[in-house]
Amino acid sequence: QASLPKGYVLRPLQSGDYERGFLDVLKVLTEVGDHTKAQWLERFNYLKQHSHEYFTIVIVEEAKNKVVAAGSVIVERKFVHLNGLVGHIEDIAVDANQQGKKFGIKIIEALKYIGENTGCYKVILDCSEKNIPFYEKCGFSHKEYEMVWRP
Amino acid sequence: QASLPKGYVLRPLQSGDYERGFLDVLKVLTEVGDHTKAQWLERFNYLKQHSHEYFTIVIVEEAKNKVVAAGSVIVERKFVHLNGLVGHIEDIAVDANQQGKKFGIKIIEALKYIGENTGCYKVILDCSEKNIPFYEKCGFSHKEYEMVWRP
Ligand SMILES: CC(=O)N[C@@H]1[C@@H](O)[C@H](O)[C@@H](COP(=O)(O)O)O[C@@H]1O
Ligand SMILES: CC(=O)N[C@@H]1[C@@H](O)[C@H](O)[C@@H](COP(=O)(O)O)O[C@@H]1O
Q1: Residue B137 forms contact with A (CB below 8 Å)
Q2: Cα of A29 from ligand 1 centre, angstroms
Q3: With CB atoms counted within 10 Å of each terminal CB, which end of chain B scores lower, N or C?
């Protein structure tokens, strides 16, 4: 696995990433909302207390002290497959000004590594039709259909 | 919402459902494995300790003291949608000898109710192409594509 360009690091989410624009990066994905620091900390602390199941990683541009890419894997505990574990990859986002640097692939490779090393028998995600080729390049293949219901 | 046929109850998973054939019902879905009682209790107790995020329900045939249908919803905590919650429906299974009694729909309706009442902004699941019409009848619509990677 090739390394990141110079000046960038990949690491777990930190509390100070609120000030480093983590939530802005997520805006390429969907509606994020306007978190106060207290709302940020509420969710950050929940995830930290559940660090056996929630893993969020970021890529940071060190000179600018800015988050440029992010992603999560959530480890589900099942009965099937003899108490099998399933990794759910969620909320993959790369800053629109940082495309072409393969940050998306780096994030996915790191999350696959986490999934494998926590013992997941599979790692899954849902993506739009246009992103299927990207995830195929990352080693995934199309299996089922995501269905949604909104209350 | 119509009630269940007489003699059947819908309720949360109980520890004694090991003896009531809960794991056998899951066999319609995939490989389940041969759980010892200790392995069953390990997973059951984990889910119980995480009862704010794991909800598993069953339908039981009272006269026979047998589980005939089952399903789960796992509530994921996100940053997007202002600390939004997403319900993941998993491991929907109905005993092959109990088809046509609408147990699948009852399980899904109950899991949607749980998702809505825990505050999920959406409830999602992955299904095979042939099951899309069933989930459409349950109020779901097709959104994205499930991608899988196996270590
Ligand atoms: C692999 C990946 O990043 N998938 C994301 C998912 O994690 C995210 O939560 C959702 C937001 O869409 P929503 O606002 O409609 O829930 O979009 C995509 O499905
Ligand atoms: C809605 C529903 O019940 N979906 C199930 C999923 O929950 C289950 O975990 C998987 C097992 O397949 P696997 O053995 O290939 O993981 O099948 C289906 O996708």
Answers
A1: no
A2: 7
A3: N
A74: part of which helix (H) or strand (E)? strand A66-77
Backbone angles phi, psi at A87, to 5 degrees: -90, 130
Instruction: Report the number of distinct structural domains present in chain B.
Output: 1
Does residue A2 belong to any structural domain of this protein?
A: no
What is the domain-level CATH number for residue A131? 3.40.630.30
B106 part of a folded domain:
yes
When CB atoms are compared, the residue of A90, A112, A127 closest to B145 is: A127
- Which distant-in-sequence residues (6+ apart) come within 8 Å of B117 by Cβ? none
Question: Residue A151 falls within a domain, yes or no?
Answer: no
Residues of B in contact with A135 (CB under 8 A): 147
CA of A141 to the centre of ligand 1 (A): 18
Pick from B26, B79, B124: CB nearest A147: B124
% chain B with pLDDT above 70 = 99
Q: For B4-31, how does the pLDDT look when each residue is reduced to its tens digit (9 = 90+)?
A: 999 999 999 999 999 999 999 999 999 9
Mean of pLDDT over chain A? 96
Segments forming the whole domain that contains residue A117: 8-137
Per-residue pLDDT at A2 exceeds 80 = no
pTM: 0.97
pLDDT of residue B2: 63
Would the pLDDT of B104 be above 80?
yes
